[in-house]
Design goal:
The chain has 87 residues and is of the alpha+beta class. It contains 2 helices and 7 strands; from the N terminus they run ββααβββββ. A 5-stranded mixed sheet has the order 2-1-7-5-6, covered by helices on one side. A two-stranded antiparallel ribbon has the order 3-4. A hairpin with a 3-residue loop joins strand 3 (47-48) and strand 4 (52-53). The longest helix is centred in the middle third of the chain and has 11 residues, at 28-38. The model has no long low-confidence stretch (mean pLDDT 95).
Length: 87
């Protein structure tokens, strides 16, 4: 199982969604799809058509920046980061 760490903005949008979730997945996209199966609509917050990560979403697997096809090994940590902007 891999640990997924989500941005603090998501749990308030999906009932019962914790900030840290364990999933079985071999890629970042599979991890997101696993979350989607439990919390419908979550994938749309992270992924757009293509599929591609939304421009404001970044993912890191074991501290290395990744994309949807980045491998996720058992015991990996997948951090999902939402970019923040302002002025």
């Amino acid at each position: 199982m891999a640990e997924v760490v989500l941005p603090g903005t998501l749990p308030s949008l999906f009932a019962g969604l914790p900030r840290r979730v364990e999933v079985e997945a071999s890629t970042v996209l599979e991890a997101i799809d696993s979350l989607e199966a439990r919390w419908p609509g979550l994938r749309d917050r992270l992924v757009e058509e293509g599929p591609a990560l939304r421009p404001h979403i970044h993912v890191y697997v074991d501290r290395e920046r990744g994309g949807l096809e980045t491998p996720v090994a058992p015991g990996s940590r997948l951090d999902v980061i939402a970019a923040i902007s302002g002025g």
